[in-house]
Amino acid sequence: MTNTIDTSIYAAVTEAIQGEVRRILSEGSVSAVVGYAAARRKGSAQPIVITDAARAEELVFSAACVNNLAVYLTKAKKEIPKTGKIGIVVKGCDLKALVGLMGESQLKREDLYLIGVPCAGVLASTAQPSQELTGDTIAPKCRECDARLPAGCDFVPDQRPVSIELAGKYSAEIARLEAMTPAERWAYWKEQFKKCIKCYACRQVCPFCFCEQCLCDRNKPQMVETTPRPAGNTAWHIVRAMHLAGRCAGCAECERVCPMDIPLNLLNRKMAKELKELYDYEAGFEVREKGPLAMYDEKDDQSFIK
Amino acid sequence: MHHKEKHAFEPKIIAFVCTWCTYAGADLAGTSRMQYPANVRVLKFPCTGRIDPVFILKAFQQGADGVLVSGCHPGDCHYIAGNFHARRRFAAFRKLLEFVGVDLGRLQFSWVSAAEGGKWVEMVTDLTERVRGMGPMREFKELGLEEQWSGAIDTPELREAYDSI
Amino acid sequence: MQTYLSENNLKTLLDRLIAGGKRVIAPRLDAGTPLYGPLADAAGVVLDQLPRRSAKEAFFPVCEDIMSYDKEGQQVTLTDVNPASFPETVLVGVRPCDAAAIPVLDAVFSWDYKDEFFLERRKKTTIIGLACTQADDACFCTAVGLSPADPKGSDLFLTPVEGGGYACETFTEKGETLVNGNRELFAEPNGAPALPPAEPQTEKFDLKKVKAWLDDHFEDPAWDGIAVRCVGCGACAFLCPACHCFDIVDEGTEKAGKRRKSWDACGFWKFTHHASGHNPRDLQPKRYRNRIMHKFKYYDDKFGQTLCTGCGRCIRFCPVGIDIAAIVSEISKK
Prior knowledge:
- The complex is a heterotrimer of chains A (306), B (165) and C (334).
- With 306 residues, chain A is α/β, with parallel strands linked by helices.
- Chain A has 9 helices and 4 strands; from the N terminus they run H-E-E-E-H-E-H-H-H-H-H-H-H.
- Chain A starts with 8 loop residues before the first helix and ends in a 27-residue tail after the last helix.
- Chain B contains 6 helices and 4 strands; from the N terminus they run βαβαβαβααα.
- The two termini of chain B are 34 Å apart.
- In chain C, the strands form 2 sheets. Chain C has a 7-stranded mixed beta sheet. A 4-stranded antiparallel beta sheet of chain C has the order 5-4-11-10, with no helix packed on it.
- In chain C, helix 6 packs across helix 8.
- The termini of chain C are far apart.
- Chains in contact: A-B, A-C, B-C.
């Protein structure tokens, strides 16, 4: 039995992206484009910034195009000049992050040229870039994706991904953890956080971690221990999840890049689930001025307050 | 009337309170000569809206067995809406703490006005008694003594510190 | 000395060492992730994959206390950590890329200042290396002049042979002591041919040429092009068997606390951030340049070797697919 996922549209998507980027760069309607290019390892891809229409042919889209490129447009990335209109290749999940950044006044829609990708899914961090996309190698976030076709883009190739039916892994895992006792959950996270080496890859790839100075890098006062010990690691991951609550767009980059395989996105998904239940908020394609934790309703639930 | 009971375990309770309502309420309890457990250490903030969830985390890390967060009743905030924002933030934060395995019995939120000296006494007494029943908050203290295996030194002093919790 | 060690006898050896009070560090699964760590018994050892973090942490921990302070009234008591308390250790299943990095670290930790923490652990550790029979396209040990069968850095080196078990060769006194102390577990060489070593596909770098280019190109537009995608995390440096930068911080309260040494990385913005607020490496290309310069030029200038053993971890786990092998091979063609 094969559980191969049909990615045949990616060749046409690649061609369409190249054509559009060539056009917008040569017309001068954008000053730069952030996209994906093939890399040395078989099947692999990496982010690329191009300013020259002649290099449009380097752009690709494949199941190895895992990155959320939105991170390159935040003020945390000073290396990319933010002058003029910038084109960016986005999957649905990446677009939700861009929308969140617009809501937080980090980006303006009119400064962006959005090239949306009809997405059949990308590879999990556990897969080799050369592997075929299957039910086993697909990224967990793609299993429960509701944004295969990004909405509101300036350009979307005219392809449609074949719909796939895969059981969601995050929802099942969250339910499993919720059914545990607090002591069991503590033991579970302790094992996971213990591995953390504070490489901060989770923070650095997060489109929403754009603070000039992270609270966790400060030492006066020091709210979170900077050394990679179990106590400081736990505090760091709790603070990270809290700072992203109501902002996280669910791109799961934190989890993908963790070299210690810590299931970080579980924390984000859990918070998203709670905020949906409490305040009926979900990350989406519509720019909202305020997230659920930046506003209030006088009638909000306070059953937990005496 | 009031007699001091001896307990095997006296929990450390940290109370984060707003200066306008709960702090004044606690003050009222004091000037009214009401008795409440001496286990509580009060930290005063301008508003519950200034009480960052990371403070609660830090309190547990630094040895609190229970945490009380208290401020003005909805609608009474000195800064109009600080407590409304805080309410959402704490609603989310307690869900997160619960998910990583913290027993929410150790964390209490309340609204205590400047006129509610009695309610302050009730809040502090309830939480202290409840946490006393739960025993010491071991999780964060134990975690504080743990090391990555490569940095662990299994010396007698370390063992002693560990056993003393 | 050449001997043969069966798989069962390797496990018996490890169990015996553990029972004898030695700390045995080997690759094992830690919440699902292959990592080096102390074994409770030989059953937990996982030798078929490269551990996620390198073996350097056996000598240069992720984080360690170096001193503690206690203040009572006006009296402050400082207590040093005594390296003599470090346990006798056997480090098992170290791949050639990890093992070869250890002598590289020796050079830096015993240069102008003798790092007693590192050197004491080094003195008390016997390293059992293991030849690689599998490589992926991120592996490039051969490109930096090593090989999947290189015993450099190992006291005792195991090469898997056909029919199971390992051909075993000792290279140091420590290795011989280990074999002699457990002689009945080591048989005469059985003549079985070694399993073919892994064959990393990356072309050999001309390290002299790379260094020559780096000598002249501190300023070069190429750096911007290479590092524009770098997001400034420390994954590459932390997983690297040869990177050795560390930070020292005091953590604790007014009354008591510890001075701790933990891994640091030149990719971080904070790494070169001055107290004045100035940062000489203000942009990521300057920080990434430092990583390449340190590995292929500065270290060579000082110690005559390259600070890279080609394990490929930084390539496999770079969040944005930065490929040091591709970059160096491009430089060597310039």
